Amino acid sequence: MCGIVGYIGENKARPVLISGIKRLEYRGYDSAGIAVIKDNGIICEKSVGQICELEKKINGKFDKSTMGIIHTRWATHGAPTVENAHPHFDCSGKIAIVHNGIIENYNYLKAKLEKEGHNFKSETDSEVIAHLIESHFEETLEDAVRRALKEVEGAYGLAIISLDDPGKLIAARHGSQLIVGIGKKEHFITSDVAAILEYTKNVVYLDDNEIAVLTRDNMKTTDVDNVQISKRIDEIQWNLDKIEKSGYKHFMLKEIHEQPQALRDSMLGRYEKDNNLVHLGGLKDKENVLRNIRRIIIVACGTSWHAGLIGEYMIEEHLGIPVEVEYASEFRYRNPVIEEDTMVVAISQSGETADTLAAIREASKKGAIILSICNVVGSSIAREADCGIFLHAGPEIGVASTKAFTSQIAVIFLLTLFLARIRGNREVLSNDMASKLKEIPKQVQKILDREDQIIKIAQLYKDNGNFLYLGRGYNYPVALEGALKLKEISYIHAEGYPAAEMKHGPIALIDKNMPVVFIATTDKVYSKILSNIEEVRTRGGKVIAIASESNNEISKLVDHVFYIPETIDALTPILSVIPLQLLAYQMAVMRRCDVDKPRNLAKSVTVE
Ligand code: AGP
C-alpha cells in the first residue's frame, strides 16, 4: 500500500516528511521519493528500496524548505524503479504529485495527453495526473486539480504542489484514505495518521470527491465542483502501535478484514463496462498463444497451492482444459513432461518462493509458456514469467496468508473468464458469471460482521490438540487451507481431507476429543457430506459445520453451524474460507501465540 505525507508550515519540511514516511514503512513498499519547494524551484530525489536509501541521496539543499511531499510506493503499474517512484511531474517540472490508488482509465488519458504533446517518463498510471493538471492549469492550482480530477476514473489519494502556486499544498481523495493534520501555523497531509501523530492529534478525514487547499495558516475544503464543505476536526485517541494496524490487534486480523476491498481491487479495471467481458492487461500480448493452450500445470506452495487446486476445478469445469496442480518443490526435481501448448501457471503471493521460482525455470527450459499470479509487482517470479496477473491485494504483512488467498481465487476466476473470451466459449460467457464475482465483496463483509459467532466456537475448542477439516469438490482445498491456517498460527495439529477419504483411515481418529470442521455448503455433493457428518457424530466426534444460509436442516445434525451467503460453486471457497481464517486467528490469540510472526515460519520462503 502506498504511503503519503505532505507538509506546509513554518518549520523545516524535511524532518517532518522523513519521520512521517518512516511511520508508514509497515504498509510495505518498494521505492520512495520526496519533492520540496525551495526559493524558485522544486527539488526532488527518488530511490528504489528502503527509506534509508532515499535519505542517503537527500543532501543539505533540502534543508531550507518549509513545504513538500514524500511517498512510499507499492508498485501496481510498472516495476519498482526510480523512474516509476513518486513524486511524478508534468512536462514543465513545475507540478509534483504523489498518488495512492489505481487510475482505471489511465491508458485512455495517457494516449489523449500524448496526442496533446505531453511526454511521459514512467510506466505508472499515477503520472497522468500531473500532466492532466498541467493541461488544465490557468489561474490557480486548485482549479486545475478540480478540472483534471473530473476526467479521472478509479481510486486516488493525492498530495500536490506547484511552483506556479507555491504557497499551497493540495489534498484530494477518492477511494484512498487521505487525512489532513491541523497544527499551529502548519498543515499536514497523510494516508495514515501514524505519520503525523507526533506533531498533531487534530485531524480532518477527507471523504470521496473532496479537495483540501492548505496554506501555512488556512485550510479550505470543497468538492470537485468547488462547492464549499465544512469538515469536523477529530482528535486522535489511538496510540501509534494500534494505528499501524488501523486499530486491529494484529496485521493478520487487519488483512482478514481488508478482504472486501482487496477483492474489489482485484477486479478494478478488468471488466468491459457494458458486457462484463474480462480483459487482463498483463496477458494482452499473449492472447494468441493462450488461445491454443491444451494443458495447464499449476505450480505453487502452501496456501497458494490450495488456490491452485481451486483453479483446477474451476478451469476444468468451465473450460474443459486439462489442469494438474503440483507442489513446486516436487515439480522442479521430477523431470516433468511438458508438451507443446502447455502453460505453467505459478501462483505466489510474494513472488519470491524459491521452489516456485525454480519450478518455472525448469518449465521454461522445457518450452512451456509461463503465467504468474503474484501480489508483489517486480518480484522475481513476476519478472521471469512470460506474462502475468497481479492480485492488487496490497501488502500482506501477516505470515499467514489470508487476503492473498481469496484474491488469488478471484484472479483465477478472472483468468477463466478471460480464457473463455479469447477462446470464444459462449456457454461461459452467456451465463454472466462475472456478476457473481462482483457480489462477493459484500458477501464477505456479511460474514466478517458476524465474527462474534466464531469467537464463541473458538472459546470452546481452543484447548483441543487435534482437528480434522473435511470438504468435497471446491471445498476440499478449503478444508486443506482451514487446517493449514489453524496449525501454522495456533500450533494445534490439524489435517484437511476430502470428506470421502475419511473412511480410508482418518475415521479411526474420531472420538469426543476430535472436533471435525465440515465445509457443508449446499452444492451437488451436499448429501454425501451429510452422510460423512453422520459417520462422525455416531462415533462421538464434535462437528462444526460451515453451511449455506438457506439450509434450515443442518443445525439439528451438528454441534455448531456458521452460515455463509450463497454463490456459484466456483466462488464458494472465497466465502467458506473466511470463518476458518477467523477461527484459526481467534484460537491462536486465545492461546497467546505470536499470530503475525508464528514460530519457525517466514513470510516468504526464499530458500529451499
Ligand atoms: C500460508 O499461510 C503460508 N504463509 C505459506 O504456506 C505460503 O502460502 C507459502 O509459503 C507460499 O508463499 P507464496 O504464496 O509467497 O509463494
What key attributes describe this structure?
608 residues, alpha/beta, Glutamine Phosphoribosylpyrophosphate, subunit 1, domain 1, Rossmann fold, 3 domains, eight-stranded antiparallel β-sheet, six-stranded antiparallel β-sheet, binds 2-deoxy-2-amino glucitol-6-phosphate, transferase, Glutamine--fructose-6-phosphate aminotransferase [isomerizing], glutamine amidotransferase, SIS_dom_sf
Q: Could you characterize the architecture of this molecule?
A:
The chain has 20 helices and 24 strands. The protein has 608 residues and is of the alpha/beta class. The protein folds into three domains: 3-236, 4-Layer Sandwich (Glutamine Phosphoribosylpyrophosphate, subunit 1, domain 1), CATH 3.60.20.10; 244-443, Glucose-6-phosphate isomerase like protein, domain 1 (Rossmann fold, 3-Layer(aba) Sandwich), CATH 3.40.50.10490; 451-590, Glucose-6-phosphate isomerase like protein, domain 1 (Rossmann fold). β2 and β3 form a beta hairpin. α8 (259-267) runs parallel beside α14. The protein is globular, with a radius of gyration of 26 Å. 52% of the residues are buried. Bound molecules: 2-deoxy-2-amino glucitol-6-phosphate. 2-deoxy-2-amino glucitol-6-phosphate binds next to α10.
